[in-house]
Amino acid sequence: MTDSLRQAALDYHALPTPGKLSVELTTPAETQEDLSLAYSPGVAEPVREIAKDPEAAYRYTGKGNLVAVISNGTAILGLGNLGPLASKPVMEGKSLLFKRFADINSVDIEVEAPSPERFIETVAAIANTFGGINLEDIKAPECFQIEEALIQRCSVPIFHDDQHGTAIVTVAGMLNALEIQGKNIEDARIVCLGAGAAATACCKLLLCAGAKKEQITMLDSRGVIHSGRSDINAYKGEWARDTEMRTLDDAIEGADVFLGVSGPDLLSADQLAHMADKPVVFACSNPNPEIAPELAHATRDDLIMATGRSDYPNQVNNVLCFPFIFRGALDVRATSINEHMKLAAIEAIRKLAREEVPEEVRAGYGGVEMAFGPSYILPKPTDPRLLPEVAAAVAKAAVDSGAARLPYPEHYPLKPL
Ligand SMILES: NC(=O)C1=CN([C@@H]2O[C@H](COP(=O)(O)OP(=O)(O)OC[C@H]3O[C@@H](n4cnc5c(N)ncnc54)[C@H](OP(=O)(O)O)[C@@H]3O)[C@@H](O)[C@H]2O)C=CC1
Ligand SMILES: CC(=O)C(=O)O
Ligand SMILES: [Mg+2]
After folding, report:
1. Going by CA atoms, what residue is nearest to atom 23 of ligand 1?
2. Which one of the ligands is nearest to 197 CA?
3. What is the pLDDT of residues 236-287, one digit of tens each?
4. d(CA 407, CA 395)
5. What are the boundaries of each domain within the chain?
6. In contact, 267 and 291? CB cutoff 8 Å
7. Which parts of the sequence bind (S)-malate (predicted)?
8. Which of 77, 217, 262, 288, when mutated, tests ligand 1's pocket best, judged by the most ligand atoms within 8 Å of its CB?
9. 94: annotated active-site residue
10. 256 annotated binding-site participant
11. pTM (two decimals)
């Protein structure tokens, strides 16, 4: 990162007031009468209603439009385990995105928990105050245990964004990219660098989209995950292949797809050069991708290149999913975010990339041309159609699959914000 971008990023977070969020009132609080309603004695009435019927919380409080973004800071972007407090700018950022893109109120919560059990206890104890919980930047394998336990214990949707948000956007982008390259997902040889939260969920959803397990080679920091390894947990074990391949050099030879969800600068130009013709390279590590786009494009001109960043074409980032999937889930009061809802989100995101791009979106990206093709495989997060399209698809899937507690909303499709 250049010095000027670094300083601009620090200034952005410090000014005009520290941080990126504030709380605003939705009701008047000026007069004696206002205060008698907002606080004592009036506030006692909704208290009594909620005590009689917990569902009344959706009528008398902000619960139904409130999502907590919760982290323990163990896998902050690709920066590693830097602790809960250091994760706060990212969590505030996710809350900003919830509000900006889906008008969902969101607070960030960073939990100092010495064990997964303590984290689970903490989140389970507060979950019911929110309409949903977005877990963020929790490393594998603990993230799997944490999410599973919270889904069991909580009555509101629990969604580990680094797993499912990332997987939804990755699959949407991958299907489009492979189509542009003239390839089928069923035949694609896929190398996934990283075997953590994002990698595991992406590869599972790629299988749902038609990828073949025997065509996926997953690597962790010690190399290829193969059946001879005794140092892998059960989650990684699911991806173990009977193979002679041991290193990224071995795995990348002739591969159609490189999916990077690991760390910075781990794919070399030489390795990229050994991929098949017309490869797809998703270097999704943030903030620094597995290979810099400049180096990738200098190495070969037949690839489709994507990163997790906003400042390059083809941003493969869960921001394209989590605000909108939660919007749909909250609006039908879904109890969970299930596979049907995820698949519906994939299709909605994927289809939008084929539509003509609104002028206002292009203007926000320096006026560059955007049309379905190698440099435009996914819509931009600022595309105002994402909200109505994805939320509607997700809400419908929730209703159809039995996850919804309310009918499909009469006010849908939503108007763009
Ligand atoms: N663009 C996007 O939307 C998203 C991008 N990401 C990015 O994906 C990355 C991983 O995040 P997440 O899954 O949450 O984190 P996890 O901590 O759960 O997983 C990290 C994985 O990366 C592996 N890894 C680390 N260094 C290397 C290496 N040198 N070679 C191969 N593998 C390596 C780890 O290996 P080991 O198991 O051996 O420790 C681990 O399997 C981050 O960079 C993050 O920014 C994540 C979510 C969304
Ligand atoms: C984008 C994101 O969630 C991550 O890099 O962790
Ligand atoms: Mg994350």
Report:
1. 194
2. 1
3. 999 999 999 999 999 999 999 999 999 999 999 999 999 999 999 999 999 9
4. 9
5. 22-161, 164-307, 321-401
6. yes
7. 286, 317
8. 262
9. yes
10. no
11. 0.98
